[in-house]
Amino acid sequence: MPLSESQKKHLRGLAHKLRPFVMVGQQGLRESVHEELEQALTAHELVKVKVAVGDRTARDAVIRQLCEQSGAELVQRIGNMAVLFRRNPKKPRIELPRH
Length: 99
Description:
Radius of gyration: 13 Å
CATH class: Alpha Beta
Low-confidence stretches: none
Order of helices and strands: HEHEHEE
CATH topology: Translation Initiation Factor IF3
CATH architecture: 2-Layer Sandwich
Number of domains: 1
Structural class: alpha+beta
Shape: globular
Helix content: 40-55%
Largest sheet: 4 strands, mixed
CATH superfamily: YhbY-like
Mean pLDDT: 91
Number of strands: 4
Number of helices: 3
Strand order of the largest sheet: 1-2-4-3
C-alpha cells in the first residue's frame, strides 16, 4: 500500500530524531546488510539508512534495490541518508494518519 503525502510527512517527523540503523559502505550491498535491514524494519518499522557509495545515481540505485528486496517504502532521501518504512503486520508500532 503506497503511503500518502500526509503519512510520509508524519513519518519524516518521526524519523528526524533517529540515528542510522543500517549503513551501506563502499563494499555495497552484502547479504549482511539485507539481514540487518530486515531485522531493523521488523523491530522498528521506520529505519534510517546511511548509503556511502559513489555518486547520486549509485546511491539512488542502492536505495531502490534496498526497497525492492525488503518490501519497504522510501519515505525520504536527503544526501546519503534514506528513511524507509515497512509496516509490521503482526505488531504494528507506528500509527499512521488516515489520509
